[in-house]
Amino acid sequence: MLADFPAVMLTGPRATGKTTTARQLAADVVQLDQPAQAAAFRADPDAALRRFAEPVLLDVWQEVPAVLGAVKRAVDADSRPGRFLLTGSLRADLEQQTWPATGRVIRMQMYGLTEREIAGRINQAQSSFLDRAETADPESFVLPDVVPDLPAYIDLALRSGFPEVAYPHRSESARRTWLDSYLDQLLTRDAASLDHARDPVRLRRYFESLALNTAGLARDKVVYDAAGINAKTAAAYDQLLMNLFVLEQVPAWSTNRLHRLIKTPKRYIVDAGLVGSGAGLNARAVLADGDLFGRLIDTFVLMQLRAEAAVSADISRFHHFRTELGRQEVDLIVERGAGRFIGIEIKAGVAPDLHDARHLVWLRDEMPDSFLAGVVLHTGPGVYQLSERILAVPICALWG
Length: 400
Hints:
Blueprint: E1 7-11, H1 18-23, E2 28-31, H2 35-43, H3 45-50, E3 56-59, H4 66-77, E4 84-88, E5 106-109, H5 115-118, H6 129-135, H7 150-159, H8 163-166, H9 172-194, H10 200-212, H11 220-227, H12 231-243, E6 247-250, E7 266-269, H13 272-279, H14 283-287, H15 290-310, E8 317-322, E9 329-335, E10 341-346, H16 358-366, E11 371-378, E12 384-387, E13 390-394
Parallel strand pairs: 1-4, 1-5, 2-3, 3-4, 10-11, 11-13
Antiparallel strand pairs: 6-7, 8-9, 9-10, 12-13
Helix pairs in contact: 7-15, 9-13, 10-11, 10-13
């Protein structure tokens, strides 16, 4: 992107590695959370910007929002590619209607590490999981040397994708300490930086309720009643957590070819490790609750796919699908452009059968021209065909 555009902004949760990544491409770095550098940019952002070699990284840009205006003016005067990198962990200023960088700054959201990255299996020549799924060919999937069992999947999910805890040198207790500290700072200091009126105790209770209902379609009242807040406060908390990039809503899928579809979005905590920390869960507690395990694995799978889609050359938009009475439901619908889509079901079982794929079969038969493929992701070791254009594939094929 930097080779094609004058300014690129990396956004995403704190501690996902935005600054570390951007530094590898920057000739100069401006830390706008340092008072001396921030003061110069507040006084005269245009003059301050001209002092640095390009590409220049403007880190924590939201500390001095006026820097966006300086970037806009610099790009208007000279639109050569590769001039500016910006990184930030708050969404608030990006969503304002008066945001000055529209059309000048390309935005890209960064997420935690995927299992494919952690395993060192990044190969630019290798097709993505979604590309392989689109072929509906069992031979296109390769599994890692070690295929996890069900408890191992739980451990992987609870470990998190944040770089500080994603690598093996961290003990389980150290990872939990880091995640608890991260969440505490997020719900107190970072939340207060966006809205000083927020009550951190109630916000924490609401986050716990969201964590327990991640990847679910629980009624709003169920979620906010559990936190002891009202609907208005819950809506404000949702927006706050989305502005901090730790909550995401996956919209319901709609098509004029099918009727009586629900329109409620699914809420996902963006990192499965934060689900464990926010709800106080360990592997034993998750194993004892099948519904909770399913939610955690759904969140873990979307962690892998979301990051893959962000850097994909092809458009990949995520939705969920459910009819009003729940007779048909598919965990993820991945739109791939031109009205075509892939359906993905996520199951905790080790050997899914045609019954587990029945909603994908129904969707294929209802929309044969648009249905590219269906995949039932599962915790077992086998890749096999369930029906025409519908496969059973182990979750670990995501990083195989």
